[in-house]
Design brief:
Layout: H1 12-25, E1 28-35, E2 39-46, E3 49-57, H2 58-71, E4 83-91, E5 94-105, E6 108-115, H3 119-123, H4 132-143, E7 147-152, H5 159-170, E8 177-181, E9 192-195, H6 204-211, E10 218-221, H7 227-238, E11 242-247, H8 252-261, H9 266-272, E12 273-285, E13 291-294, H10 297-307, E14 313-316, E15 327-338, H11 341-348, H12 353-361, H13 369-378, H14 384-390, H15 393-405, H16 407-423, H17 426-435
Parallel strand pairs: 7-11, 7-12, 8-9, 8-10, 10-11
Antiparallel strand pairs: 1-2, 1-6, 2-3, 4-5, 5-6, 12-15, 13-14
Helix pairs in contact: 1-2, 6-7, 7-9, 9-11, 11-12, 12-15
This protein binds zinc ion.
Length: about 450
């Protein structure tokens, strides 16, 4: 049901406030104002899905858009060029932190308000949906005072929440944490956060070079987008800093491949990388109305093949007044890889992709995204439909099959790697590099 506003009686200021507050109350992540021929369509995104919210007649469109531009600090006389703005205010007891983007389309200006929600990060690492085993791995990973930890996933997969949660955990008085971000999505007390501004040449790489002269312990890089940033990140980590960053990749294996594509020195990367956390967000089944049903043959096969479990029943979404389509909130599905010596050596020695795949998924106790997702289906946290929507089955099954089929090959690969290492003097070079101060000057 679309919401109706009495536009003749209620001032536009109140209507805009009302839409924003209602969206926040409903845990929406974004509010869209889409110009159409006869009306402005308002949509809100809840748990990743865009839902029609209201239609504002054309006569009020300009006033409404202007009001949003005023409160987000945009130029109201400019409607032909894209603009970015922000709203930080308190409306009716709600502390709001909103990012606003306006973009001219052929039907008029489209405005999107992103609602930044800190509640997840503030709840801590323990509330992010990591399985016990994965949480333990992450805790071990962040204890190491140097190296690179990467959080990977698509846009909107909750990467920032995970990174901020880790930073909050590491944020102690005797530690200097510096971040370079675009945009700064959450203010954390005690962390020196720097906003990139490429228009004036303040790029990730430039800021990073300066950060290294600011005696940091921990450096957070909002995102590794280019080779230059990746190279500085690697060098910073091997000179004794803990580097946290994000990358747009799907899983542990593609993350390593992407970094290597970025022309980062292999032996340095192998030495630098500590861990990779890959994640996706699935809608969480509403605890109030979820119900059980029997699994069909195909599903039984999938659980058997992926987890070696016989699953007779799974939960599916129901219908109730407390949720949207049987779902309420979201849960992260994760793959956590601790980079062990074998993988470090394999990266440094440029092994083939298939061999790397075996080392990542077979020679470690890595739970793949598909396995973690299916475990969460068994636990009734999300549905099979959600997991299959997020994870490409072919690729994941391939990983698991590689695990099962190549046991023999892997042991011989490891022998090979060990042999290479015995002869390889690069290992000694790395320790030299770590100790040499001139590496800090890039
Ligand atoms: Zn429900």
């Amino acid at each position: 049901m679309l919401r109706k506003f009495d536009l003749e009686k209620i001032p536009i200021v109140e209507i805009v406030n009302d839409i924003i507050i209602d969206a926040v109350k409903r845990d929406a992540s974004d509010i869209h104002f889409d110009p159409h021929d006869n009306f402005l369509l308002v949509r809100i995104r809840i748990d990743g899905e865009l839902i029609d919210y209201s239609e504002i007649p054309n006569a009020y469109q300009k006033n409404l858009i202007t009001r949003i531009k005023i409160i987000s600090g945009m130029n109201i006389t400019e409607s032909r060029l894209p603009q970015d703005g922000a709203i930080k205010t308190k409306i009716k007891d709600y502390d709001l932190d909103l990012r606003v983007s306006a973009l001219p389309t052929n039907k008029g200006e489209k405005v999107v308000i992103r609602i930044l929600d800190y509640t997840m990060s503030a709840q801590g690492l323990e509330k992010l949906g990591f399985s016990d085993k994965n949480l333990k791995k992450v805790r071990e990973m962040i204890k190491v005072p140097n190296g690179i930890i990467l959080v990977t996933g698509a846009t909107g997969s909750g990467k920032s929440t995970t990174v901020y949660s880790i930073l909050s955990k590491l944020n102690k008085e005797n530690i200097n944490i510096m971040s370079v971000e675009d945009p700064i999505e959450m203010d954390i007390e005690g962390i020196n956060q720097i906003q990139v501004n490429s228009e004036i040449g303040l790029t990730f790489a430039n800021v990073l070079r300066s950060i290294l002269r600011q005696d940091p312990n921990i450096i957070m890089i909002g995102e590794i987008r280019d080779t230059e940033t990746a190279q500085i990140a690697v060098r910073a980590s091997i000179t004794g800093h803990l580097v946290l960053s994000t990358l747009h990749t799907n899983n542990s294996l593609t993350t390593i491949e992407r970094l290597l594509d970025m022309n980062v020195e292999r032996y340095l990367l192998g030495s630098a990388l500590t861990g990779i956390i890959s994640q996706k967000l699935a809608r969480r089944l509403c605890p109030n109305c979820k119900r059980k049903r029997k699994t069909i043959e195909y599903e039984k096969d999938l659980f058997k093949k992926t987890l070696n479990k016989d699953i007779e029943e799974i939960y599916v979404p129901g219908v109730c007044a407390e949720c949207t389509g049987g779902y309420k909130g979201r849960i992260a599905i994760q793959e956590v890889l601790t980079i062990n010596e074998d993988i470090k050596d394999a990266i440094a020695n440029n092994v083939r992709k298939e061999e790397l795949r075996n080392l990542v998924y077979e020679r470690t106790d890595t739970i793949t995204l598909l396995q973690d997702g299916l475990n969460k289906v068994i636990n009734g946290e999300t549905s099979l439909e959600e997991v299959l929507k997020l994870i490409e089955l072919d690729d994941s099954i391939e990983n698991i099959e590689a695990e099962n089929n190549n046991l023999k090959n892997v042991s011989s690969i490891t022998e090979d790697v060990t042999n290479i290492l015995d002869k390889n003097t690069n290992q000694i070079d790395i320790s030299n590099i770590v100790q040499e101060p001139e590496v800090i000057d890039f």
